[in-house]
Amino acid sequence: MTTEAPSKITAAPTPTSRLRTGRRRTSALSLKSLTKKVEVVEIIPETEIDRNTLPKTAFSEGKLVNLWSEYAQQLIKRGDKSLASIIMASKPTLVDFHVHYSLPNQMMGDQLEKLRPRLLKYLRDSLNNFSIDLTIKIEITEVKKFVYTPKEKYDKLRELNPTLDLLRKLFALDI
Question: Which of 95, 74, 93, 98 is nearest to 84 (CA)?
Fold first, then answer.
């Protein structure tokens, strides 16, 4: 009968032993975490890529619109419903690889500016055209004024038909 040496048995690491790394994690809600985020942003250098040497495959405006809506669906799946609604607020137009997109207010434009690098990367990679650029135009529309009082209603009707004032005076009508 041969005797074998017992094999060395290692114990599985306990959950508490995995947590003890020697350094304490910074809470995401602390002021210290804000400075760490700023440091991380400053460390990542932005590399300027010469887009003239990259491919410029032709594509149609319809294909751009389809990819635009697909990106909005991806944002919805990721949970960014507000950004998806900004993307779907209007339809992009294409002029010589230049995407024009109009929004109704400045706040939506600011949100889209933050999303712009990721959106452009997605479009450039999907369309295999790295000369695509995005222009965001803010079209501030005038707020429609509603008429509520009888005086406001009369003034509005008088703007549409000036002879209404003549009828009011002829028949001695009140407003």
Answer: 74
131 and 58, same domain (yes or no): yes
Structure tokens at 100: 């024009």
Q: Name the amino acid, one letter, at 164.
A: L
Range of the domain at 150: 145-175
Q: Is residue 21 part of a domain?
A: no
Tokens of 120: 């452009």
Location of structure tokens 């004024």: 145
For strand 98-103 and strand 93-95, is the pairing parallel, antiparallel, or unpaired? antiparallel
The total number of structural domains that make up the chain = 2
Three-class DSSP category at 92: coil
Tens-place pLDDT, residues 4-61: 555 555 555 555 555 555 666 666 666 666 666 555 444 445 566 666 677 888 889 9
Which of 66-80, 87-101, 137-151, 161-175 comes out lowest in average pLDDT? Answer: 137-151
The number of angstroms, rounded, from the C-alpha of 108 to the middle of its chain's C-alpha atoms is: 8
C-alpha separations of 137 from 47, 118, 121 in Å: 27, 18, 20
Structural domain contains residue 32:
no
CATH of the domain at 130: 3.30.300.180
Asked whether residue 58 falls in the same domain as residue 112, the answer is: yes
pLDDT at 112: 93
- Same domain flag for 66 and 134: yes
